[in-house]
Amino acid sequence: MAFDTTAEIDEDRLSLLPAAIQKDVDAERIDGAVVLVAHNGEIVLHEAIGYADRAAGTPMQTNAVFWTASLVKHLSNTMLLRCVDRGDIAVTTQIREVIPEYATKGKNSTTVADLLLQRAGLPFAPNLPPEVLGNIQALTAAVCGMLPEREPGSTISYAATVAQSIMAEIVVRLDGQARDYREILAEQLLDPLKMVDTSLSARKSLAPRRVPVVVRDRRPGLLDAEILELLGNSTDEDFVVPAGAGLTTTSDYFRFTELFRREGEVDGIRLLSPALARYSIRSETGDEPNTMWSYAKGSRDWRTFPANLSLGFYVRGSGIFPHAFGQLASPTTYGGIGAGSNAFWVDPERNLTYVFLSTGLLEETRSWERHQRYSDLVHSAYID
Q1: Quick one: CA torsion of 245, 250, 252, 258, rounded to 10 degrees?
Q2: Cα dihedral sign for 25, 29, 31, 32?
Q3: pLDDT given for residue 2 in this prediction
Q4: Domain total of the chain
Q5: 234 and 109 in one domain?
Q6: Residue 227 is part of which domain span?
Q7: Is residue 2 assigned to a domain?
Q8: How far apart are CA 304 and CA 293, in angstroms?
Q9: Residues 166, 125 share a domain
Q10: Where does the Beta-lactamase-related domain start and stop, copy by copy (predicted)?
Q11: What does the alpha-carbon distance between residue 380 and residue 370 come to, in Å, rounded to a whole number?
């Protein structure tokens, strides 16, 4: 892989990023954040800004532990992609081949790719009790008995809590060793990447550095503020949601981003083939819109724009429309977002990486726009 060795990072321009975040903290839009920027895999900025807990006056620290929100989805996606890489399944494999009971009520044709690309027609947030939502096997059983809301494979329909649980159940069944998903995730991904501060559920050892989740912007959005705070502050070690729970730090999540930037290898350990790593960051959805943003047409008068989903991530693509990865991002930039809070991206053309974890959550469209501002400050600091 050819890395850019001539480009530089303008430190003065990059310093505008923490200054912009501090302004948002001072205006009480958010409480605090940790931001990390890397170039060619070398960290060039890693700062803690604002408060870990504004009410208590606790300053933010760079090793703070955050609720991941949807950033944990990309770990789940990667675990399923590893099954593809090993030849256990293909992206065209129908789910019923691994989970036979899934083949009910019009879901027979649903494929692995449908799950990864949010085309499985599953509900956004099913009305199920926490003990079901936080249990992979129980949630899988509930989904198997559901009618899809849309025909599988027909449209992009964001399933906020369920798709990754089905993925996790596929991983468990293919493993065949009577282990739970957390054990498999740790052995196959977290431990090799030395992600020592990442957990799929609450972990007592992380509690002293854990940042409370507070929603500052309580305008109506995708998810209810009370639900976000309940999920984000859960201390139940058995509450497992592979789609939107878990804990991590910026340093740990940066280790994960390196896996794809380096095409499947980190520190001499290969976890994905280069071919599969490259395949997973390629947009597969063309101009299809993501129905997740449909509500913004009414609430913000946003125009429809393409989802640009790959098998593992969001992809920036081309065009002028709101985007968390920035207007200045290369079209191949890929990454993810977390509800009202977190974001990460990798620009492979510039070998730039951005990881941002925060508390003091915003309404989703405002968070998306906030990351656009921050991201463009990073891109503008790149001098080639």
Answers
A1: 110
A2: negative
A3: 40
A4: 2
A5: no
A6: 8-71+193-383
A7: no
A8: 8
A9: yes
A10: 19-363
A11: 16
Asked if residue 62 belongs to a domain, the reply is yes
Kindly state whether residues 171 and 205 are assigned to the same domain. Answer: no
- Cβ contact 316:330 at 8 Å: yes
Mark whether 17 and 99 lie in a shared domain.
no
Cβ contacts of 76 within 8 Å, gap of 6 or more: 164, 167, 168, 242, 243
Place of tokens 């053309």: 349
- Confidence at 6, pLDDT banded by 50, 70, 90: low
Judged by phi (left if over 0) then psi (alpha if -120 to 50, else beta), residue 230 lies in alpha
The first and second tokens of residue 87, run together, are 């030849």
Q: CA angle 248-250-254, nearest 5°?
A: 105
**Two tokens, residue 37:** 């920027």
State both tokens at 174: 């293919």
1 falls within a domain: no
- The per-residue b/e assignment along 40-56, b for 16 or more CB within 10 angstroms, e otherwise, is eeeebbebbbbbbebee
Does residue 206 share a domain with residue 141?
A: no
Largest CA distance in the chain: 58
| 250, 141: one domain | no
